[in-house]
Amino acid sequence: MKNTKVQWILGGIALLVLPLLLQFFGNAWVRIADLALLYVMLALGLNIVVGYAGLLDLGYVAFYAVGAYLFALMASPQLSDNFAGFAAMFPNGLHTSLWIVIPLAALVAAICGAMLGAPTLKLRGDYLAIVTLGFGEIIRIFLNNLDHPINLTNGPKGIGQIDSVKIFGLDLGRRLELFGYDINSVTLYYYLFLVLVVASVVICYRLQDSRIGRAWMAIREDEIAAKAMGINTRNMKLLAFGMGASFGGVAGSMFGAFQGFVSPESFSLMESVMIVAMVVLGGIGHIPGVILGAVLLSALPEVLRYVAGPLQSMTDGRLDASILRQLLIALAMIVIMLLRPRGLWPAPEHGKSLTQKN
Length: 358
Prior knowledge:
It is a single chain. By secondary structure, this protein is mainly α. The chain has one domain (about 15-265). Helix content is about 65%, strand content about 5%. The protein has helices spanning about 1-20, 25-50, 60-75, 80, 85-90, 100-115, 125-145, 185-210, 210-220, 225-230, 235-260, 270-280, 285-305, 305-315, 320-340; strands spanning about 75, 95, 165, 170, 175-180, 180-185. Helix 2 (about 25-50) packs across helix 12 (about 270-280). It starts with a helix and ends in a 19-residue tail after the last helix. InterPro entries: ABC_transp_permease, LivM-like. It is found in: Cell membrane.
């Protein structure tokens, strides 16, 4: 027990010190860590839908987009510049507090998740995957074309001039000097994202061990048997879609604040596929495995930049570095899945036949 506590304390200290060490190698590495934390939130949310309830969702990036655009509209001059009535009420634009945006992003994304889940309750497997994939593409195309006749999303040009996050007067978009030590903006965002990830992990663990979590797992293993045992499968499925989507909405709102700019290009089908791959690669239904998969797959493309560059120069530029990087990622995933078909860190009790604990 003492060793476990010591490990947790050392792990916490390492996470707190990590961005300060990465600063010495450049802000790009801290930025990679920031994006990795956002992907961890996304993977944890999708794990509720795919890992717990067994519902394959290939349109999860849509909720990420909903959260990002919600924050963009509520913390930028976009609405005031395009709507005269809105400009009369808010001449300087709408600059909403973080404490309002996070719950609102979670609520709006959860509603969108329930709206997606409602017409797909009777679908399973490949058919469910196709419908959710279509939903994700519809949202992206909708955002891409909603610049006329009413300019709401600014179309493919995206929304810029988004406010940075401010907490108790501290602007995370500006450098902070503390005891003579400069802490960059990307480092400040790292600590905010870390707090949100820790909260997400706690919520996921509480859900996993609750009656709701066990109902989701019963539906995953055998929906007919779960219904026969008195579980309301309809409500449980809708709750899984809504709860998972809320994580994506919060992550999206933080992405919008962190980037200061959002556009439909950031929410392509490839993003959804990568998030699903994070859950599958790490270990479906196992929170530590999902976190590991998210960190590896979000950091791997950036690390492989330093491998793809030399390989491109060796071939006199015949190979495109970005394509080569994607090829290396795919090869790495194939090798891992061949060696570890249940994921890098699978759940100890995953599957229908559970081993008896002594």
